[in-house]
Amino acid sequence: MLPSSRMPKFVAFLLVVAASLDDASAVDSKYSLETKYMKVPLDHFKWYAEEKSFNLRYLVDAKHHVQGGPIFVFTGDKGDINIYAQNTGFMFDIAPMFKALLVFIEHRYYGQSLPFGNDTFSNPQNMIYLTTTQALADFAFVIDQLKREFFENVVQYDTYPIVAFGSSYGGMLAAWLRMKYPYTVLGAISSSAPMFYFPGLSSCATFYEKVTKVFERYGRDQCIKTIKLGWDVIINLTKNKLGMDFVSSNWKLCSKISTTDDVEKLLEWLSDIYVNLALSNYHYPTDFYSPLPAYPVKVFCDKLTTSYFNDTKGLIEHFGYAIEMYTNYTGRTACNDINSKYHDITEFAFGYQMCTELIMPKCSTDADMFITAPWDFDKFAKKCYKKYGTSSSRPDWGMLIYGGKNLKYFSNIVFSNGEMDPYSCCGVSANVTSSVMAFDIIDAPHHVDLRNADMSDNNYIQSARQFHILALRKWLKLE
Ligand SMILES: *[C@@H]1O[C@H](CO)[C@@H](O)[C@H](O)[C@H]1NC(C)=O
Ligand SMILES: *[C@@H]1O[C@H](CO)[C@@H](O)[C@H](O)[C@H]1NC(C)=O
Ligand SMILES: *[C@@H]1O[C@H](CO)[C@@H](O)[C@H](O)[C@H]1NC(C)=O
Ligand SMILES: *[C@@H]1O[C@H](CO)[C@@H](O)[C@H](O)[C@H]1NC(C)=O
Ligand SMILES: *[C@@H]1O[C@H](CO)[C@@H](O)[C@H](O)[C@H]1NC(C)=O
């Protein structure tokens, strides 16, 4: 049981659900898909006298599908499924070639697939069904229904022509679906998936080192030096009220910072901006989580370093100017809310996952551009308990159920990773067997091979997509 003082934190999330659903429906739609819902068991692994279930959303595109053609299933990531569908143009690009049906399945507890509706996050007891094992069972369950719906009389395959696609956390799920339910999909294309981002499998320092590499490559030395200097300047300046007020007004913060806790949040907010810039450093403008220009890391660094500044306040002003490129590219952001992350249900839900099954240790060292901070498991576990009432007593669980680095026992998986993707820190970057393969994409950012083809894509990105197509043809026996 949770101490009762913890309850209000959860209750606060009640209010946020509706707002977030509005945001989701506002997504620009390049591809139009049919929205469907399937009733899935709340708990796949227990039997009750009265089964509890909820509606899982999935999106379907049948424009190029012909009877008997394959089904390409996208295993939803941590967020609204439509956002992922709109940003996974590769599947739409190849659907005509394969006459495939496209199905994007939302991950439970994200987007509209909330098991307890508005109450999903209002009570810790409601969150216990948020696990990767439940999510994979959802995918298997939906796929089983799709088989019945689309392959009534198909017998020419030894199994059904269904393949899983996913990227990032969803890429881990696509691979795990093939590993845990090999009879549901013939294979999995797993892009940008940090498969080895578990305690003891990857160094805690590699994620921030990769982010720093992206800034080194696109922003050159001066940018990193300025960013590093920035931490000390901000920390020094915000030691008194005058400095806090200056930063608050110069950076257009929604509410003035006034405590050390606020300063900590401010520093974290800035760190997150650097990470998101690196994750979104595409060679063309994008609108994934927020609208951004091409090569936002370069644009940010140019703004930060091109003109001269002679004092602390000048430096803060430069940061403000550069940050605005990220937070206010459309010119429609009234103010910067450094607390937005704490009101975001997606962050809340994935935070829960990172406190339970998906513990991803992060630390920063002198080798990167972030504030030096060790990985402190006890501190992390305490924070998790405080926020979610969870115990982090089994940090090895993720490895136990998915095998850690022992991927040689599996088959038909392609892991692709962009060299300039922070998550390549912890991906599968070498071939494991002739059927568990890796494809490293030189000079490429996060998830780019699963985006739609663009004139400006480099040869490596194009080769990655060819690699995927060859794998698909092989799995589908179309060689
Ligand atoms: C959820 O909350 C919103 C806003 O308070 C309300 O409009 C909506 O009807 C609620 N939905 C349910 C299923 O209770
Ligand atoms: C921050 O303050 C410390 C101690 O007062 C000082 O040594 C350091 O030079 C300051 N750093 C910057 C970047 O102003
Ligand atoms: C720094 O530059 C600003 C103009 O950019 C100027 O007003 C100010 O006097 C300069 N400060 C110092 C200490 O040189
Ligand atoms: C965003 O841009 C608009 C238009 O230039 C400006 O009025 C507003 O203050 C900016 N907001 C932030 C947070 O930078
Ligand atoms: C894995 O093997 C394939 C086929 O031999 C090759 O094209 C690919 O580059 C290899 N991947 C890595 C990361 O070496």
UniProtKB/TrEMBL annotation:
<keyword id="KW-0645">Protease</keyword>
<dbReference type="Pfam" id="PF05577">
    <property type="entry name" value="Peptidase_S28"/>
</dbReference>
<protein>
    <recommendedName>
        <fullName>Lysosomal Pro-X carboxypeptidase</fullName>
        <ecNumber>3.4.16.2</ecNumber>
    </recommendedName>
</protein>
<dbReference type="InterPro" id="IPR029058">
    <property type="entry name" value="AB_hydrolase_fold"/>
</dbReference>
<dbReference type="GO" id="GO:0006508">
    <property type="term" value="P:proteolysis"/>
</dbReference>
<dbReference type="InterPro" id="IPR008758">
    <property type="entry name" value="Peptidase_S28"/>
</dbReference>
<keyword id="KW-0325">Glycoprotein</keyword>
<dbReference type="GO" id="GO:0008239">
    <property type="term" value="F:dipeptidyl-peptidase activity"/>
</dbReference>
<feature type="signal peptide">
    <location>
        <begin position="1"/>
        <end position="26"/>
    </location>
</feature>
<keyword id="KW-0121">Carboxypeptidase</keyword>
<keyword id="KW-0378">Hydrolase</keyword>
<comment type="subunit">
    <text>Homodimer.</text>
</comment>
<dbReference type="GO" id="GO:0004185">
    <property type="term" value="F:serine-type carboxypeptidase activity"/>
</dbReference>
<dbReference type="InterPro" id="IPR042269">
    <property type="entry name" value="Ser_carbopepase_S28_SKS"/>
</dbReference>
<keyword id="KW-0865">Zymogen</keyword>
<comment type="function">
    <text>Cleaves C-terminal amino acids linked to proline in peptides such as angiotensin II, III and des-Arg9-bradykinin. This cleavage occurs at acidic pH, but enzymatic activity is retained with some substrates at neutral pH.</text>
</comment>
<comment type="similarity">
    <text>Belongs to the peptidase S28 family.</text>
</comment>
<dbReference type="GO" id="GO:0005764">
    <property type="term" value="C:lysosome"/>
</dbReference>
<keyword id="KW-0732">Signal</keyword>
<keyword id="KW-0458">Lysosome</keyword>
<keyword id="KW-1015">Disulfide bond</keyword>
